[in-house]
């Protein structure tokens, strides 16, 4: 019998189309050849590898699941595989693509006017216009209905006041999709860099997502024209719809982190000898590695099924919550265990595990904390909201 792929124990590869495999492999080569040589140094310095943005755009990875406007029009499984391979490199790189695609391009595509789509989406697909997404606020990200940022009509304009927190891409963004409370309900606005009263401040001293830009946004009487308001949605269903798109990609991304950590630790324990034999020859080590393989396999099957449901138009938000909860927890636990198996070497960024472990501490918190997703499933099981 043919030997199993240790990182694809249930032969997920055979369930993919030729196009899906080609996309995964092309992004994988980009990660191996271009991203991984740069990421550790950027992580150490706390800088984003902006030099990769043009290459990411040239691969068609920005807004890849959208149709038209220079976007690739790929299916959902392809987008998931893109996220998996990018996060195999670093969560910060996947976060950049996720925010640009699912949280900025998607709302303009889904909720914007045709004029807005033509104005921004082609440049965003080329990486010439970078976006950020303003929903989370300093007083509590898990309760978006309690947002304080507000917009008031003033003639043909809107005047926005408030602030947003933990905003990926904030300091490098050319536009920000910002959600604000109005007398007519919650609405989305596209703010442009340089608008008077609009300021982005970098969040420093991060120990996680260091190869990513994280910012605070401030709005002090920012005057925004009506032409910059997203006209086709009102209420929380707008931002929550964006989050569902982004969370879907996040169910795939941590699989890449986990595979990177397992691959590294299998090589390390096979090569390192203690007491006359490789570490990998010990039952205690093999039990831990086997558990990692089991958990990765379950996550792969979960995300693949979720992707097929999404392409069939049948995906439910609670199903996304289940996969986000399971897969990020899986990857974080694996990264921590791999760090331990690497011994003293595991605390340096010469190895990948601690970088992935630190990044995943953010991934398990953003786009809905683990607890929020657990409560979503609890509500599905009981019919009772415990929020």
TrEMBL record:
Superkingdom as given in the UniProt entry: Bacteria
Enzyme class: oxidoreductase
Gene Ontology MF: a single term: flavin adenine dinucleotide binding
Functional pathway: Amino-acid metabolism; tryptophan metabolism; Amino-acid metabolism; lysine degradation
Keywords: FAD, Flavoprotein, Oxidoreductase, Transit peptide
Cofactor(s) essential for the protein: FAD
The Acyl-CoA dehydrogenase/oxidase N-terminal domain, residue ranges: 17-128
Protein's recorded name: glutaryl-CoA dehydrogenase (ETF)
Ranges of residues in domain Acyl-CoA oxidase/dehydrogenase middle: 132-222
InterPro entries: Acyl-CoA_DH_CS, Acyl-CoA_Oxase/DH_mid-dom, Acyl-CoA_Oxase/DH_mid-dom_sf, AcylCo_DH-like_C, AcylCo_DH/oxidase_C, AcylCoA_DH/ox_N, AcylCoA_DH/ox_N_sf, AcylCoA_DH/oxidase_NM_dom_sf
Presence of the UniProt keyword Electron transport in the record: no
Annotated catalysed reactions: glutaryl-CoA + oxidized [electron-transfer flavoprotein] + 2 H(+) = (2E)-butenoyl-CoA + reduced [electron-transfer flavoprotein] + CO2
Family, similarity comment: Belongs to the acyl-CoA dehydrogenase family.
E.C. designation(s): 1.3.8.6
GO biological process, one term: fatty-acyl-CoA biosynthetic process
Domain Acyl-CoA dehydrogenase/oxidase C-terminal: 235-381
